[in-house]
Amino acid sequence: MAAPSILLIAAATLIGCESKATTSKKQDKSASQLEADRGAKPWALDIEEATVDNTNYRITKWTGNTMQMALMSLKPGEVIDLEIHSGIDQFIRVEQGQAQVMMGKTADKLTFSQNVSDDWAIFIPAGYYHQIENVGKEDLKVYTIYAPAEHLKGTVNKTYHDAQKYHDTKHKH
C-alpha cells in the first residue's frame, strides 16, 4: 500500500512542477508582450498574437531610425480620427474585426472608401487624409507600420481619450 501512495505523491509533484513551468512560461511571454517600445534593436515576434492580445488603443512596440511599428485596439464605434501624415507612408494590417477605411487628397473629399476585415492590408500614401472606423461588433485589432516613425518612442495610449490628449500635446506633427 505504501508504494501506490508514493507513486501518487510523485505524480502530483511532477504535475505541479509542470504546471508551474507552463505558468512561468506564459507569464514570461505576457511580460515581454506588455513591454513597450523595444527601440532600434533586432527583434522577432508573433505579430498576429501580439496584435490580437493587445488591449491598448495604441502602443508603439518598435521604433527604429526610419520605421516604426505600433499595435492598436479599437472598441466598436471608435475611430482613428481623420489625419494626414506629411512625408510618412503607412501600412495597416487588420488581424481581427471590421472597419471602414476612407482616404483622400483633401479632408473634405475622401474619395476612397473600403470596408475591410481580418487579413486585409491598407496602404496609406504620405500626404493623404485618412480615417478608420471600427464598424464591427468586436474590438478591431490592427498593427501599423510608419516609415519614417510617426509617434514618440514608447508611446502608450490605453484608450481613445488618452490618444486624443496625446495627439494634442505630444504628437510629432
Word description of this protein:
A 6-stranded antiparallel β-sheet has the order 7-4-9-2-1-10. The chain has a 4-stranded antiparallel β-sheet with strand order 3-8-5-6, with no helix packed on it. It is globular. With 173 residues, the protein is of the alpha+beta class. The chain has helices at 2-34, 47-53, 160-169; strands at residues 58-63, 68-74, 79-84, 89-96, 98-104, 112-117, 121-124, 129-134, 140-147, 156-157. The longest helix is centred in the N-terminal third of the chain and has 33 residues, at 2-34. Residues 7-32 and 168-173 have low confidence and may be disordered. The protein has 2 domains: 1-34; 47-169, Jelly Rolls (Sandwich).
Based on the coordinates given, report the CATH architecture of the largest domain. Sandwich
Main sheet: strands, sense, barrel: 6 strands, antiparallel
Q: How many separate helices?
A: 3
Oligomer: single chain
Helix content: 25-40%
Gross geometry: globular
Mean pLDDT: 81
What is the topology, as strand order, of the major beta sheet?
Answer: 7-4-9-2-1-10
Q: What series of H and E elements makes up the topology?
A: HHEEEEEEEEEEH
